[in-house]
Amino acid sequence: MDNKIIDGKLISDQIKKEIAAEVADMIDHGKPAPHLAAVIVGEDGASQTYVSSKEKACHSVGMTSSVYRLPAKTTEQELLDTVKFLNEDPEIDGYIIQLPLPKHIDEDKVINAIKPSKDVDGFTSINVGRLQLGLPCFVPATPNGIMELIKRSGIDTVGKDVVVLGRSNIVGTPMAILMSRKGIDSTVTLCHSRTKNLPEICRRADILVAAIGKQGFVTADMVKPGAVVIDVGIHRIEDPNSPKGYKILGDVDYDEVYKVASKITPVPGGVGPMTIVSLLQNTLKAAKGKIYPKE
After folding, report:
1. Is 14 one of the annotated active-site residues of the chain?
2. Options 7, 16, 93, 98, the catalytic residue
3. Which one of the listed residues 93, 121, 231, 253 is annotated catalytic?
4. Level-2 CATH architecture, domain 30-116
5. Considering only the top CATH level, what class is 141-272?
6. Separation CA 100–CA 117 (nearest Å)
7. pTM to 2 decimal places
8. pLDDT digit string (tens) for 67-111?
């Protein structure tokens, strides 16, 4: 593999081996395998694909996986009843509510009904607040995966200028918090759709994290020569020449930015594999009571 490319597939495979060894040790000592569940409401194609990938990843490291598939017409109360059941089920170590939910369901209400000790997506107000305060918590999977990529790729962060494009609660905002932490010690600028002089700000970045949700948004003239570029975007683009009929592209104009960057994540094969493996890491922590003591 080209040493300029940050290979998320390779790094995620390394982490899976580490997780599998810990799971095997738990089982050898008479403890049950960590159990991750997912709840999916409706038939969203991208959500179905993600949940299937999660199931395969669980099985590959020896974890137990369950999926609760609910019809799109499921009421908010019925979903809350499912959440209550999972909260109280001693066999479930952690679970996720696959987003997006149908429009008639209040996502915030459902997410915050999840028991914080089982919130392996790190989306509840309790875990978000603990992240903000620098307390032990479940870190959202994508930012956590990016931090693993940076650490395991040997990227220097101390005193570096980091620009994060996108302020979502799932990626951009937690990413900015994590990069500013003691021990990482970067100086972070969090940008969004109303940021002025955005190209100029991006050109100051030693590390540029693109999570803005626009295909090919980051062009070569926005990147400082030698910068590290992390592409969080995933866009399915029709391509009649592809066997699948589509191709996956990111928020970065990869071919052109590759020529300028010192390191860059590909799409697919960069951040994506790390998101799922981070979910497994959080489930293992939940099973071992590393964030919240087991009851």
Report:
1. no
2. 98
3. 121
4. 3-Layer(aba) Sandwich (3.40)
5. alpha beta
6. 22
7. 0.93
8. 999 999 999 999 999 999 999 999 999 999 999 999 999 999 999
